[in-house]
Amino acid sequence: MKSILLKIDDELFEELENSVKNVKVSKTTFIKTAISDAIAKVKRKELANDLKKEIALINEQNLDGALIADFETASLTDLQKYPNED
Known about the structure:
single chain, mainly alpha, 0% strand
């Protein structure tokens, strides 16, 4: 396991202290969760961008309009399974 040294300003530290007290977890657990959530958000954005590129490629190939609509609807439905954290 790796470790990191993190320096934050006093105001953010106080917010961290208050937050960990409210959710009753350690600062380490809180920060690990925040990092994991941020990574998941980046991956969702990458997936959404990849999906938009694929939809554009399909549109360029002039495939059946109903097929394209089904694909867009199904794909957007899949993306909506995750909370929107833009």
